[in-house]
Write a structure and sequence with these properties.
Blueprint lengths: L20 H6 L25 H11 L1 H21 L11 H11 L8 E8 L12 H16 L4 E5 L17 E7 L3 H21 L3 E7 H35 L2 H25 L7 H31 L4 H27 L8 H22 L1 H9 L12 H5 L5 H12 L1 H16 L12 H4 L6 H12 L7 E7 L8 H15 L10 E5 L2 E6 L8 H19 L5 E7 L2 H33 L3 H26 L4 H4 L11 H29 L4 H28 L7 H33 L27
Helix pairs in contact: 2-3, 2-10, 2-12, 3-8, 3-12, 4-20, 5-6, 7-8, 7-24, 8-9, 8-11, 9-10, 9-11, 9-24, 10-11, 10-20, 10-23, 14-15, 14-24, 14-25, 15-21, 15-25, 18-19, 20-21, 20-23, 21-23, 21-25, 23-24, 23-25, 24-25
């Protein structure tokens, strides 16, 4: 244990003056920063000017009312600005050919092509009669077609087994029929038209109780996904907040201390979403991204408050008054918070290298919520702590509060660190080997988005269950490819020559060996023609991708190549994820290079070392690789399906690995910078490298474990949600954070730092500044 400084004692800075304001602001330790001090004569004389973080925090502590009122005013203004923002929200455009087709349709003023399908089958599971011989199926189909056409202007382009080319609307075994139709627009009348469709289907279902009518299509599946996302978000919010409060109570042992991080995090998230409503006028932002931004906001907001509160308690336990404790916290934990926040924001900017619109909104949301979390941690939190003083530890939890309120070193992590530094090669190699073994399945990762029918488990949605039924009888019909045909001169594409091309497409489908299916339909949407082509396979699997390639590379050129003055592009449930995955795969190396290079530069500035950034990057890659491997083993290979409540579709969501890499690389710097800052404080104070490692880990790993437990708990909530994408996110992020805060920061980091010794802190060039060496009687020893 390093000798403590008495209250009011101000030893000079160990490291000497810094050359740049940036280094001074991000410097982990400064005057009065360390509890450890060598003899006064051994320290460099003089004091450095206060850093920006310390100045801001000091002003907030002195002007508590102004700081708290200013923060609340910022939150209120952000909410009001978002509520008053007018105009159309920015729309995302899918990458590649699918995005081009999407834009052609959007430029039309007559609405979109919304196609629904109704599968007509017998409720008798053992029925063997074919549709043509089944009077009741035929009667129900005729009734449905008549009822749909009876609704004035609600539908168009109705197709059925009873109409022209009726065989195209019969399943291959001939036992099921399909009724397809377009729900008419324009947009302002669409809801009324869709409601009329639902009433028609319900009425026919009541009149024919022995016939099954399963409806699935563009709108019904879209609504099912949106409803699923909303339900999942409500579940996540209702579960994560009480869980977080419970963990904070255990960590702090006081209701007031536990409530402060939640209060700051809640106001931070509210302000961020208020500002996001302004940003969405220029940057596309969807509901799925909002869940992720909420998670990140909760994670960093609670982490930053936790680090500051823990340091203030530690300084108060050392005998400092509240004001001095807040000053030391600002110069140490405050600097670490700013550095880690900048790292998170800088890393997430790497997502912009993909050029994908959905990542733009996610980047904007993450930058806003992390930036506001940093601002709250260095402004309003010091003001609240200065106002509360020792009252922050009131309302203690019985049997727990007294032990938790005392700021002590972690005995567990202290023992682990001492064991590691005694045998750094053995312990470090063992931990690294374990992570490498966990990472092995990641080399077989296959990026594949989940189809709508695979995203939600059976029984979750009527529309998704109906789509599965349609898929079995008419593969690809419920989620068919959308071929958008436009004339290059901007005139109407629905011409006899184009219709002749559609007829040739029917012939190409018949000769495709089952890759392209029927029924193929074509409807005009404004000046473009939208042709629906069902594809073989499970929408997003390799079979469907090969069918998409057949359509794009062979069938369409053969069908529409002879038609002059037209262009075409393919969108749909298969094309969009295929093009998205291709774009992400092509741009991933640029994102990785940006994030790794930027992280290296930021850590080099913070710690003025080349070895620390290199070690940090390697350790982060190990923990992320292990999380990748676990995610592949569980979701792609199909292990733990029953306990986790999902059905494997043989892939990993295409955007998730890249997103995890960027976010985890940023979030892990919270822990990394926090622990290394404490180690460096002790090294600058004169401790031997291994003693500095043990002391730094012992005093910081406990709070890091607590922060990781909160973050892991929040992400683990996503395992309980319905969508498989959220389950993957929850497992991947939660496990990576848990590994990072325990095995990596508790074992691998101490092992690496003890092996590097003094070399870890040498400047990149030139002779390093000598650090003071305490007298033998003051030399710190590992406890």
């Amino acid at each position: 244990m390093l000798p403590r400084i008495k209250s009011g004692q101000h030893p000079p800075d160990d490291a000497g003056p810094d050359n740049t304001a940036l280094r001074d602001d991000l410097r982990p330790a400064g005057p009065d920063d360390s509890h450890a001090a060598g003899p006064p004569a051994s320290r460099a004389a003089g004091r450095v000017r206060p850093s920006l973080v310390a100045s801001v925090a000091g002003w907030s502590a002195r002007h508590r009312t102004a700081a708290i009122t200013g923060w609340l005013a910022l939150v209120v203004l952000a909410v009001l600005a978002g509520a008053m923002a007018g105009g159309q929200e920015a729309r995302s455009v899918d990458p590649g050919e699918a995005g081009r087709a999407q834009e052609w349709v959007r430029t039309q003023h007559s609405g979109d092509s919304i196609r629904e399908n109704v599968l007509v089958t017998s409720r008798n599971a053992g029925e063997t009669r074919r549709f043509a011989d089944h009077a009741e199926l035929r009667a129900a189909t005729a009734d449905l077609v008549a009822e749909l056409r009876r609704a004035p202007g609600a539908v168009r382009d109705v197709g059925s087994p009873l109409g022209a080319h009726g065989a195209r609307w019969l399943s291959r075994d001939g036992r099921a029929g399909l009724v397809t139709f377009e729900v008419a627009g324009p947009d302002e009348e669409f809801r009324a038209h869709y409601a009329a469709v639902e009433r028609a289907v319900d009425q026919v279902r009541e009149r024919h109780p022995r016939v099954s009518l399963a409806q699935a299509g563009d709108h019904s599946l879209s609504e099912a996904i949106n409803d699923g996302i909303k339900d999942d978000l409500r579940t996540a919010e209702a579960t994560s907040l009480p869980l977080t409060l419970l963990i904070l109570l255990v960590v702090f042992g006081s209701l007031i201390a536990a409530g402060l991080p939640l209060l700051l995090t809640a106001t931070t998230v509210v302000a961020a979403f208020g500002l996001l409503r302004l940003v969405t006028r220029w940057v596309p932002f969807n509901s799925a991204a909002s869940a992720i931004v909420l998670l990140i906001g909760m994670a960093v907001g609670i982490d930053y408050a936790l680090f500051s509160l823990r340091r203030v308690r530690e300084e108060r336990a050392a005998g400092h008054d509240v004001r001095t404790a807040l000053g030391i916290t600002a110069r140490t934990s405050g600097h670490a918070i700013v550095a880690s926040g900048l790292t998170v924001m800088a890393c997430v900017v790497g997502l912009l290298f993909t050029g994908v619109d959905v990542f733009k909104g996610l980047t904007a949301g993450t930058v806003l919520v992390v930036g506001l979390a940093v601002v709250s941690a260095v402004t309003v939190l010091p003001a609240l702590l200065a106002a509360l003083g020792d009252r922050v530890d009131r309302a203690r939890v019985p049997w727990l509060g007294k032990r938790r309120i005392a700021a002590r070193e972690s005995r567990l992590w202290g023992r682990v660190a001492r064991a590691v530094v005694r045998r750094p090669v053995l312990t470090g190699a063992s931990a690294a080997l374990a992570l490498l073994v966990m990472a092995l399945p990641a080399f077989g990762m296959r990026l594949q988005d989940a189809a709508v029918t695979a995203s939600l488990p059976p029984g979750t949605s009527v529309a998704v269950d109906a789509a599965n039924e349609v898929q079995r009888a008419f593969p690809g019909a419920a989620t068919s490819a959308r071929v958008v045909i436009a004339r290059t001169d901007g005139s109407a594409a629905d011409t006899p020559a184009v219709r002749a091309g559609v007829d040739r497409l029917h012939q190409r489908a018949a000769a495709s060996g089952g890759a392209l299916r029927e029924p193929i339909t074509a409807v005009p949407v404004g000046d473009v023609l939208v042709v629906r082509v069902p594809l073989a396979g499970a929408v997003t699997d390799p079979v469907a991708n090969r069918a998409l390639s057949t359509l794009r590379e062979r069938a369409l050129p053969a069908a529409f190549g002879p038609v002059r003055g037209v262009d075409y592009a393919v969108a749909g449930k298969t094309a969009m994820p295929h093009d998205f995955t291709e774009r992400v795969r092509d741009r991933t190396p640029f994102v990785f290079a940006f994030v790794l290079g930027l992280a290296f530069l930021l850590l080099a500035v913070v710690f003025r070392s080349w070895t620390v950034p290199l070690v940090s990057i390697l350790l982060n890659l190990l923990s992320i690789g292990a999380a990748y491997g676990a995610m592949v083993w569980v979701f792609q290979d199909g292990h733990l399906e029953a306990p986790l409540g999902f059905t494997s579709y043989g892939g990993v969501v295409s955007w998730l690995p890249l997103f995890m890499f960027v976010i985890l690389f940023g979030l892990s710097m919270d822990y990394h910078i926090f622990i290394l800052s404490r180690v460096r404080e002790r090294w600058l104070a004169g401790a031997e490298p291994r003693a500095a490692v043990v002391g730094g880990v012992a005093v910081s790993a406990g709070v890091v474990s607590s922060a990781a437990l909160i973050m892991t708990g929040v992400f683990t909530v996503f395992l309980t949600l319905s969508a498989i994408e959220y389950k993957m996110l929850g497992l991947g992020m939660g496990l990576a954070i848990l590994i990072d805060a325990t095995l990596v920061r508790g074992v691998l980091l101490p092992a690496a730092m003890s092996l590097l010794g003094d070399r870890a802190w040498h400047p990149p060039r030139g002779p390093h500044r000598p650090r003071p060496v305490p007298a033998p009687r003051d030399r710190p020893a590992a406890r």
